Structure formats: structure tokens, C-alpha cells
């Protein structure tokens, strides 16, 4: 089989460039002509990436022509439409599976997952949270399970997560370093959906906010506003916050759509961001940098979380026995909305 070095020599580019192009690394800057030349050369030589080779090996082992993987979404359609966070994770999963020509079916937990999951799945990728009872249902059906954005049992299951506590602390420390004393919180409710019911779950952003504010002697329970993770709720909750006798100088807002709604509420009463009230959001969705005041926000690599989930699953199908948890780093993206040292 052809090697990366052979392709690099024929296309007159470095081996690292060939490797990144063939593995669909979106961070690499390369001309379209060069990219096409690499892909065409690899195809002519019959080159296959490590993941393609693993899939072929798995197919031989199980005696099937194709792999079948299901995606289980633990959030409602409305939640996905209101907040691009989970939608972006799903995109990353689906794009990676499509790239590898793996058959995919998608289910939602609250629609009655237990009766829908096929018995002959090669693997399952779960986005979000499920309870112990449902977890047992899943484990009875399928051996190879990967969780994204939640890790219920790191001794049994692979998982891709972010460190919500570290990310929240970093955002709050930015405010503290700037000298803000009265800091508020606007956030939503995290739920675990099941058939005909939903259960409210702990939100690490909120619990970390409370803990950090107490540690810095800045906690005020009146400055915490909780609703749903929607833009409209961000607007409504900021309206409520503005009725406080002492309105916070800064707000940590647990999602960018909520932060954009909050910006609108401030504009309506002619309050300036960050001059009157500073804001830090969470997610770094595309619209964050184009908001009326560009949002300082915690960047979460959601699509990469989805892709990594697929890679963990394929690695497990290839024979790995030890469960792994990958913590994807976040980054505080500084823009205009968080202000400067007052």
C-alpha cells in the first residue's frame, strides 16, 4: 500500500501536509489545487487512512459489509433548535461517520429509545445524559458505547467531555481581575429527558459560579437568574435583573444565545456594553463575534467533540479494552463585551 511519504514526493509537498489533508484537518491552510492534487494522488495509489483500514478490518472480523452506528440524543428538538451547542456536536459526529461511509441512525431519548434501538448495532454514541435505568438498557443492547458531553461511568465507557468547572472559573477570573465586585449569573436548566418526563440535572456552570463567588466574598443569591437555554429567556432574564435595587456590573451568561438575548434587553434601555454592564458568554457560536457588541465567550470545540467520539468508537471496535475519557480544552475568547479594568 502507498505511504504518506510517497504521496508527498509525487505532489511536491511535505509529509505533514499530506497527512493533515488526508485526515481532513480543517485547521490547515492549503490551496484548493494542492488539496485536490493530494487527494487524487492518494486515490490513484490506493492509500487508506488508519481509520479506513480499521473499518475494513472490523468488517472482516464481524463478517459484514458495513458498520452500523446509532446516535442517541438526550435533548429535545426544541433544545437543539434554540441552542447550537448540541446541534454542532451532532454535526461533528455525522460528518465523521459520513466521511467513513458508516451507516447511521439517530434517536432521541425522550421518544422511547428502549424500543427503538436495533439489536445488531456495532456501536452507539450518546450525546448528553441518561439515568442509571436507561444506562442498563443501553448496555444490555450494545457493548461499544461512547458518551459525549457526559461521563456516567469512566470505568466502563468511553467519553468526550469538557471541563465546565475550569472554563467557568476562567471566565469569572477575568471579571475579578478587571475589578468587578457585583457579578451576576444568567443561565438555563439542564434536563435529562425520558419518556413522558424530564429530570433537572446539575449544571456545573451554575454550581461553579456559586462556589467561586463565595470563595471571593462576592456571592449574592439575588443576582442569579435561571430560565431555559433560549435567546428569548436571555432577554427576559436580563429584563428581570435590571429590576434589582443594585444591578450587577457584569454577568456571566451560560450560553451565547442567552447572552445575545440579554444584549437586546440592555439596548432597549440604552445601557451600554461593556461601559454599563460587562458580559461573558459560553460556547462561541458563530454569531457571537457578529453580535451588536462582539461577545467575549468561552470557546467550546463542539464539532471536534463529535469527531473524537467517532474516533474513540472506532478505536474500541478495533480491539481496545480499556475505557478512555478525553477532556477537550476550552478557550476564553476576548472580545469587546467583557470590558476593561474599570
From TrEMBL:
<keyword id="KW-0804">Transcription</keyword>
<dbReference type="GO" id="GO:0003700">
    <property type="term" value="F:DNA-binding transcription factor activity"/>
</dbReference>
<dbReference type="InterPro" id="IPR028082">
    <property type="entry name" value="Peripla_BP_I"/>
</dbReference>
<feature type="domain" description="HTH lacI-type">
    <location>
        <begin position="2"/>
        <end position="58"/>
    </location>
</feature>
<keyword id="KW-0238">DNA-binding</keyword>
<dbReference type="InterPro" id="IPR000843">
    <property type="entry name" value="HTH_LacI"/>
</dbReference>
<keyword id="KW-0805">Transcription regulation</keyword>
<dbReference type="GO" id="GO:0000976">
    <property type="term" value="F:transcription cis-regulatory region binding"/>
</dbReference>
<dbReference type="InterPro" id="IPR010982">
    <property type="entry name" value="Lambda_DNA-bd_dom_sf"/>
</dbReference>
<dbReference type="Pfam" id="PF13377">
    <property type="entry name" value="Peripla_BP_3"/>
</dbReference>
<dbReference type="Pfam" id="PF00356">
    <property type="entry name" value="LacI"/>
</dbReference>
<dbReference type="InterPro" id="IPR046335">
    <property type="entry name" value="LacI/GalR-like_sensor"/>
</dbReference>
<protein>
    <submittedName>
        <fullName>LacI family DNA-binding transcriptional regulator</fullName>
    </submittedName>
</protein>
Amino acid at each position: 500500500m502507498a505511504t504518506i511519504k510517497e504521496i508527498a514526493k509525487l505532489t511536491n509537498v511535505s509529509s505533514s501536509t499530506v497527512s493533515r489533508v488526508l485526515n481532513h484537518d480543517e485547521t490547515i491552510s492549503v490551496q484548493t489545487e494542492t488539496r485536490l492534487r493530494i487527494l487524487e494522488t492518494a486515490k490513484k495509489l490506493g492509500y487508506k487512512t488508519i481509520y479506513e483500514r480499521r473499518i475494513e478490518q472490523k468488517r472482516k472480523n464481524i463478517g459484514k459489509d458495513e458498520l452500523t452506528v446509532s446516535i442517541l440524543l438526550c435533548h429535545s428538538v426544541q433544545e437543539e433548535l434554540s441552542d447550537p451547542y448540541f446541534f454542532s456536536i451532532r454535526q461533528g459526529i455525522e460528518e465523521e461517520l459520513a466521511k467513513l461511509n458508516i451507516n447511521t441512525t439517530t434517536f432521541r431519548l425522550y421518544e422511547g429509545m428502549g424500543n427503538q434501538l436495533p439489536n445488531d448495532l456495532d456501536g452507539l454514541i450518546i450525546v448528553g445524559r441518561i439515568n442509571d435505568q436507561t444506562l442498563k438498557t443501553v448496555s444490555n443492547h450494545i457493548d461499544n458505547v461512547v458518551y459525549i458531553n457526559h461521563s456516567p461511568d469512566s470505568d466502563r465507557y468511553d467519553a468526550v467531555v469538557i471541563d465546565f468547572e475550569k472554563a467557568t472559573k476562567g471566565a469569572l477570573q477575568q471579571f475579578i481581575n478587571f475589578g468587578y465586585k457585583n457579578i451576576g449569573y444568567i443561565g438555563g436548566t439542564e434536563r435529562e429527558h425520558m419518556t413522558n418526563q424530564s429530570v433537572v440535572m446539575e449544571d456545573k456552570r451554575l454550581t461553579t459560579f456559586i462556589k467561586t463567588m463565595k470563595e471571593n466574598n462576592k456571592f449574592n443569591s439575588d443576582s442569579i437568574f435561571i430560565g431555559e437555554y433560549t435567546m428569548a429567556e436571555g432577554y427576559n432574564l436580563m429584563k428581570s435583573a435590571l429590576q434589582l435595587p443594585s444591578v450587577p456590573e457584569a454577568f456571566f451568561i451560560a450560553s451565547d444565545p442567552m447572552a445575545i438575548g440579554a444584549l437586546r434587553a440592555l439596548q432597549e434601555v440604552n445601557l451600554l456594553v461593556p461601559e454599563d454592564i460587562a458580559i461573558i458568554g459560553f460556547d462561541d457560536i458563530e454569531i457571537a463575534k457578529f453580535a451588536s457588541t462582539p461577545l467575549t465567550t468561552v470557546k467550546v470545540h463542539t464539532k471536534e467533540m463529535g469527531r473524537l467520539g467517532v474516533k474513540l468508537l472506532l478505536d474500541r471496535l478495533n480491539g481496545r479494552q480499556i475505557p478512555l475519557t478525553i477532556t477537550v480544552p476550552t478557550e476564553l475568547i476576548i472580545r469587546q463585551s467583557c470590558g476593561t479594568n474599570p
